[in-house]
Write a structure and sequence with these properties.
Strand order of the largest sheet: 3-4-8-7-6-5
Helix content: 10-25%
Strand content: 25-35%
Shape: globular
Largest sheet: 6 strands, antiparallel
Distance between the termini: 114 Å
Number of helices: 4
Order of helices and strands: HHEEEEHEEEEH
Number of strands: 8
Length: 198
């Protein structure tokens, strides 16, 4: 019997290459590559600053209790202030006490008096009061804000000339936060009603 050994090396080489390939390649299949899912980046928890406790937060002003019926005469015990005006809620409880800083009173004295009673204001701003003639004057504004009550002070709330005298009055308003919220709601409702009529 005659064997042809001349083609044997090429046969052996082909057999070796086939055996060295992965089974998926031999079957004509591509190997799937698994891509890992993207990891969710967790943002750090946001820390909401807590409102600072206002230890001097008042429950009354000029002897008038807030959130209670009016039981005293509306007369200011402080000479620098005019007699107060109060606002009441539907239940008849006082929700705002407002008084004017009299003409000629030095505002710095009023500021010092308020600070000695209620601590440093939580905010200070300077606004502008513009007259009909176009003149502008500084209006110093002090604000305190607590959990239930807020205080608003302005150095120049009203300004006018009468009988040759220039009158300049400031204002102090002590009011409940529920009263402030109701004022905002009423203003928004009025604005919407006015817009609906356009």
């Amino acid at each position: 019997m005659y064997f042809n050994f001349k083609g044997l090396p090429s046969i052996v080489l082909t057999l070796v290459l086939c055996l060295s390939l992965p089974l998926e390649a031999q079957a004509g299949k591509k190997k799937a590559i698994k891509i890992s899912e993207p990891q969710k980046i967790t943002e750090p928890e946001k820390v909401v600053p807590q409102k600072q406790k206002w230890s001097e937060e008042p429950t009354s002003f000029l002897g008038i209790s807030l959130n209670e019926p009016l039981t005293v005469e509306l007369k200011s015990p402080i000479d620098d202030f005019t007699n107060p005006v109060v606002s009441k809620d539907e239940s008849g409880n006082v929700v705002q006490v407002q008084t004017k800083i009299k003409d000629g009173v030095i505002f710095k004295e009023v500021e010092d008096m308020m600070i000695s009673k209620y601590g440093q204001p939580h905010s200070r701003t300077t606004g502008k009061v513009k007259t009909q003639g176009g003149q502008e004057f500084d209006n110093q504004i002090l604000d305190w804000s607590g959990e239930n009550v807020s205080i608003h002070v302005e150095s120049l709330y009203e300004r006018w000339i009468e009988a040759g005298h220039l009158w300049e009055l400031g204002v102090v308003s002590v009011r409940t936060n529920s009263f402030i919220a109701k004022q905002k709601d009423d203003a928004n409702r009025a604005a919407k009603d006015a817009a609906s009529k356009l």
